[in-house]
Amino acid sequence: MQITVILGSSSDAPIAEKCTKVLERFGVEHEVRVASAHRAPEIVKELVESSDSEVFIAIAGLAAALPGVVASHTTRPVIGVPVGVKLDGLDAFLSIAQMPPGIPVATVGIDRGDNAAVLAVEILAAKDDALRQKLGEYREEMKEKVKKQDEEMRK
């Protein structure tokens, strides 16, 4: 498995779907799991320690402890996705972004499962030329969309 996506609860599934769509687009092997940092911390620990994934994406709202707990059980990269449940997601964002020294978690924007997936692909692409090429093509497609939008706006 290249990437494990862990949700704090099944209510985070819409954010995970954004993530998995991107991972599927790049052909990256992944799995999606549910494990609560507060309600089932032993499951989180077992899942992380037994995983052979190269990158973890942890999606959580409210206190959003999940990404930090995942990071505490691995030296592999962890990307946190804050979910906009209360306070427009700012509570979750700050919980993820303000990790103590030595246990960092990369943090993307609120509800940005798609950006978490792109960042995870970029991490994998550091050692994978084919993924690096796909990322270049992806960015080229984004540029072309902007050009097309500009042309349509000028009409």
Could you say what the CATH architecture is? Answer: 3-Layer(aba) Sandwich
Could you say which overall geometry the principal axes of the C-alpha atoms support? Answer: globular
Give the CATH level 1 class. Alpha Beta
* Fraction of residues in β-strands: 15-25%
What's the topology here?
Elements lengths: L2 E5 L5 H13 L4 E5 L6 H10 L4 E7 L4 H7 L5 E6 L6 H8 L8 E2 L5 H13 L3 H26 L1
Parallel strand pairs: 1-2, 1-3, 3-4, 4-5
Overall description:
With 155 residues, this protein is α/β, with parallel strands linked by helices. It has a single domain (3-128), classed as Rossmann fold, CATH 3.40.50.1970. 50% of the residues lie in helices and 16% in strands. The chain contains 6 helices and 5 strands; from the N terminus they run βαβαβαβαβαα. A 5-stranded parallel sheet has the order 2-1-3-4-5, with helices on both faces. Helix 4 (90-97) links the parallel strand 4 (78-83) and strand 5. Helix 1 (13-25) packs parallel to helix 5 and helix 5 packs across helix 6 (129-154). The chain is globular and about 55 Å long. The mean pLDDT is 96.
